[in-house]
Predict the 3D structure of the following.
Amino acid sequence: MENNRFRQTCLQNIISDHQSGSAEIACMALKALADYSQRCEEAQPSTYLKELNAFAVALQQTRPSMAILTNIIDAWLEEVNRSKHPQSDVMTLKQVALGKAEELMAQSSQANERIAQHVCDLIADNSVVLTHSISSTIIDCFTKLAKREISAIITESRPGNEGLQLAEKLSKSGIETQYITDAQLGLFMEKADVVLLGADSILADGSLVNKAGSYLTALAAHDLGIPIYVCAEKFKQSRESRETIHLEEMDSAELNLADLPHITARNIYFDVTPPRLINGWIDEEGVQTLMGTPST
């Protein structure tokens, strides 16, 4: 019963977290798997693995718009379910499960650090960097860019207002920042030198799935000739297409609309930006001008 409550709490925490970026969500899921792998009391290897697999799949299903959650848990499951492991005792399996979770969390963190360095190599001193929503990858980029005397323009990113968190982090980093409503993006875009966006998923054709408003951000940047780069580790690359990706819709109560006849509130949290609007994708290997093709 206690383990069931633990699983349900972990699942609900991820479902209800509208403030963290997808890499942070994936880290939460790996921590949950690591913790559960140690607390699970199944004595037989086969039943122990069955419990771990069921919890892992349930975690993957919590946030279908986030490719990293599927991919990083798949990598964990592949190691845990290797053919030699079912012949091992439960103690050995626990060591494997914990060790792989820790390895993947470190791998994701290191990928973000490398992406941030590639961004620093790309962006000139004193640039004005515009971003929408919040991303742990983008935060790492700003942390490194703070030494380059850049300034920032950030959106509030309604309805979750993740921009408030980002504003606090940029303030602590000493980055001069203009904080704007989403509706002012078209007005402020001409003041930017470059746009950086995080990602929840990168689709097979290079399309970006990210917080709603990213598509409008890219349209404004493209219209004004402002380069836009998507910063995302390879774990965020998805096999899904624009036709098959599930864009999560959250509780419409976040929009604070009164109950009015004939009015339906919609709160779809993500949108899809086509690759034609993106100048480059920055992953841990460098800047890609076409998906899978490093720039020269």
